[in-house]
Write a structure and sequence with these properties.
332 residues, alpha/beta, Spore Coat Polysaccharide Biosynthesis Protein SpsA, Chain A, 2 domains, 9-stranded mixed sheet, 54% helix, globular
């Protein structure tokens, strides 16, 4: 592709962040090549950092006119992206969303733009590979990269380039983003899945690229992992309540975890009540042992524990949101 073609379609790189002082400067430096090759500008949308993130970005912006800072009083990522597009989007054709706590190839944005031009897609999504450092992170990463943790999701496992219904958000045509109303700011989690539902319904097209991908670092403790997946479960329930969009088969299976766990409490009446919960636990742990033996990865059994935390938290979050909605509607 002619490099001039990339420069003709102007891009706005958007980085939502909160307290990312350890990562933000290196990330902006890495994106310098994209700002040059794509004639792109970059905006950091900060949710009220107190660790020096804002000061770092302001310092960079004083010497690089392509970088600017916006404050995000609503704090959440969906509001950050909406604010960036609403404030600056009129001057650009594409928006590239970058997560402050991810790792990207040097040519990440360039490959996204090449696929956008080649396919004519309204949205480009990418596969996401999870990598950990601590023992718990490594086990969680192993779980999230396996079918035990991701259910075979293509934006987790990667695949040949194809038209998709959903994926990890990377690049979007601003006109399409605005036409469907941007992100729903009622969603603190799963705003991307809810958005993709509306994007597909409106007739826009999503392309899963195989030209590039990103690296994601998982939560480092069981508590924070639980909170993250509890939020994902609530977000998926909100999507169901808003659109009546049924979870996929791979999501329906972990959805049953909390009901079978509650059912296990009936073991005081009948021992058979614990069987469904026992089958799930044994299946997870058995898969972990298989990963340890079959794939020669010592983190297999601990990965199974991480997967169980994810399953239980996602299920708990879904049912919490669903039952809370029913209660709110009954009280109104």
């Amino acid at each position: 592709m002619n490099p001039d073609d990339l420069k003709h379609a102007r891009s706005l790189i958007v980085i939502p962040c909160l307290n990312e002082a350890k990562y933000i400067e290196a990330l902006i430096i890495k994106l310098g090549g994209a700002m040059r090759d794509l004639s792109a500008d970059l905006v950091v949308v900060d949710g009220g950092s107190t660790d020096g993130t804002r000061e770092i970005v302001e310092r960079i912006a004083t010497v690089n006119p392509k970088v600017r800072l916006l404050g995000n009083p609503k704090r959440i990522q969906s509001a950050a992206v909406n604010l960036a597009v609403g404030t600056l989007g009129a001057d650009y054709e594409y928006m590239i969303r970058i997560d402050a706590h991810g790792e990207y190839p040097d040519d990440y944005c360039q490959r996204l733009m090449e696929d956008a031009i080649a396919t004519g897609a309204d949205s480009i999504v990418v596969a996401m590979q999870t990598v950990g450092f601590s023992t718990f992170q490594k086990a969680t990463a192993y779980a999230q990269n396996s079918k035990l943790g991701n259910g075979g999701s293509k934006h987790r496992t990667g695949s040949a380039g194809h038209w998709a219904d959903h994926g990890h958000h990377a690049l979007m045509r601003i006109a399409a983003f605005q036409a469907v109303g941007g992100y729903d700011e009622m969603f603190s989690h799963n705003e991307d899945a809810e958005f993709d539902y509306r994007l597909n319904k409106a007739g826009y097209r999503i392309w899963m690229t195989d030209k590039t991908s990103m690296i994601y670092y998982p939560r480092s403790t069981a508590r924070t992992l639980f909170r993250q997946y509890f939020g994902y479960g609530r977000g998926r329930a909100k999507n169901f309540l808003k659109h009546r969009a049924m979870p996929s088969i791979r999501q329906m299976l972990p959805l049953a975890v909390v009901p079978v766990a509650v059912g296990a409490l009936l073991a005081i009446v009948s021992w058979a009540a614990v069987i469904p919960f026992g089958v799930w636990a044994i299946a997870c742990l058995g898969y972990g042992v298989w990963m340890a033996v079959g794939e020669k990865n010592p983190y297999g059994p601990l990965a199974a524990v991480s997967a169980m935390v994810m399953h239980f938290a996602w299920s708990a979050g879904f049912w919490r949101e669903l039952l809370d909605f029913r209660n709110r509607r009954a009280a109104s």
